[in-house]
Amino acid sequence: MNYDSKIDVTENQGSGGDWAGAPPVGETEQDRTSRRWWLIAIIAAIALATGIWFAVRGGEETVATGASDIQTPAVTVIVPGRASVEGEITATGSLAARRPMPIGSVGEGGQVRGVLVEAGDWVSQGQVLAVIDRSVQSQQQAGQSAQIAVAQADARIAQANLDRALKLVERGFISAADVDRLTATRDAANAQVKVARATLGQLQAQTARLNIVAPASGLVLERSVELGQVVGGGGSAVLFRLAKGGEMELLAQLSEDDLARIHVGVEAKVTPTGGNQSFTGQVWQIAPVIDATNRQGVARIALPYNAALRPGGFASAVINSGQTVAPVLPESAIQNDDKGAFVYVVDGKDVVHRRAVRTGIVTARGITVKSGLDGSEKVVLRAGGFLNEGDKVKPRVVAAAKSNAAE
């Protein structure tokens, strides 16, 4: 009886019957609670792992596509093509007199007795600019004038002696030899008169050269002489500087490439620094030599006189260089760094590449590109500063005219 009861209890526990929930023999309440929490944790972990697995497997393609869309930036690009642009060259340089004329003393020199003009005055050819002391020269002229009078008196006596001899020769009182001698004496006296007059003319010319005169009409630029100053002869010192005809010029510094694009006779607009007024001139000479140190040459732009054009001043010039055909880009498309100007070009695979360019003139339509582009490329219009070589982008092409209007 007791044996059968023991077997029933064992079978009920093993078979999961009514006694399945009964605790094993010897198990405490704390053991049952711990076991329950372990079961809950295991079930939750299995459920979480299953959810993650389905989420990853089911949404893998969607997540990849979304990430790709977020990381690939969209950029606006243009295809500039090639446009005909009226060429202009911008240059700077200094103003100067086109024909500067230094003036000094060409005579013997001496003490300055009077200065008759100031810097900024207009003078005419032959006008006296300054007077040099001539007291010694005046006395020399007076003495030479007296010598002429003496020579003339000797010539008159010689002529009278000859006339008397010719009357006596017919009577036989004077020989032919005496007549020849008196004729020679008369001729010598007349020659002495000519010599005296020539000497006086020389003294007068030397005295006249003491005056400092203007060799041509023009504008007095500098006055470097004062009253009472002693000046030397031979033009050793510059006393005045004159701009012939008042004509001015701009010595524009240009690169080799720019010099090759212009020719004598092209118009240029010159604006002095600090002023708003511009003056129209013409290139009248192009330097035949290039400076080996800076690879630049000088284009000389002739300008008419104006008080605003002061020699030695600084000015800028815009020179007409004719039409040129080149790509034109908005300013936003061109980047600059220590390596120079560049743009970003998008290739057929929508990958960005850096392209070095040389910029030209700036027009209302944009900046011309002299080299680096042929006009068929897709050029990033904006946001170039946020891109790098090899970046993948989504290009959006706009018309060049529209991009210029947007700018």
Q: Would you mind describing this structure in some detail?
A:
This protein is of the alpha+beta class. 34% of the residues lie in helices and 33% in strands. It has five domains: 25-71; 74-85 and 326-406, conserved putative lor/sdh protein from methanococcus maripaludis s2 fold; 90-98 and 247-322, Elongation Factor Tu (Ef-tu), domain 3 (Beta Barrel); 99-133 and 212-246, Beta Barrel (OB fold (Dihydrolipoamide Acetyltransferase, E2P)); 134-209, Helix Hairpins. Strands 1, 17, 18, 19, 22 and 23 form a six-stranded mixed beta sheet that branches. Strands 2-11-14-13-12-15 form a six-stranded antiparallel beta barrel. Helix 3 runs antiparallel to helix 4 (176-208).
Entry keywords:
6-stranded antiparallel beta barrel; BSH_CzcB-like; conserved putative lor/sdh protein from methanococcus maripaludis s2 fold; YknX-like_C; 5 domains; Elongation Factor Tu (Ef-tu), domain 3; disordered N terminus; transmembrane; rod-shaped; 33% strand; 34% helix; alpha+beta; RND_pump_MFP; 407 residues; 6-stranded mixed beta sheet; transmembrane helix
